[in-house]
Recover the amino acids of this structure.
């Protein structure tokens, strides 16, 4: 079990996601990853956004947390700079059939309820944020 920090980035009625293909599964997750010993959850989310998306972000606010194989923290964030899709983290640059593929994408918020976005409860929360 490992605690994780993740970002939720919303721009132009779209949300940044990582499209995953692993074994026979096709699904989406919010950019994020494990919290290192010297990091807070928001610091991990910022680092992971850079590694996975290639962007520097600023945390706007905490959205939610829950327990699933460790504590999962989600933060609403804004892009400050960088080029979306240019992440250089290990999972983005190295091929490992056992880990599957990682591909950064923008998804319409209106489609979140139709896609297999994990975790579902955060996807539903973002869907509500995008409509309000």
């Amino acid at each position: 079990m490992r605690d994780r920090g993740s970002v939720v980035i919303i721009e132009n009625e779209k949300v940044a996601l990582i499209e995953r293909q692993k074994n026979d599964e096709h699904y989406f997750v919010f950019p994020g990853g494990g919290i290192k010993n010297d990091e807070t959850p928001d610091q991990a989310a910022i680092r992971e956004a850079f590694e996975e998306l290639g962007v520097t972000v600023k945390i706007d606010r905490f959205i939610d947390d829950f327990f699933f194989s460790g504590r999962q923290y989600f933060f609403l964030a804004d892009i400050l700079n960088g080029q979306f899709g240019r992440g250089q983290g290990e999972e983005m640059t190295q091929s490992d059939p056992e880990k599957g593929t990682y591909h950064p994408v923008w998804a319409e918020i209106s489609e979140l309820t139709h896609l297999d976005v994990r975790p579902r409860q955060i996807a539903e929360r973002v869907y509500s944020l995008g409509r309000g």
The mean pLDDT is 92. The longest strand covers residues 55-67. DSSP finds three helices and eight strands in the chain.
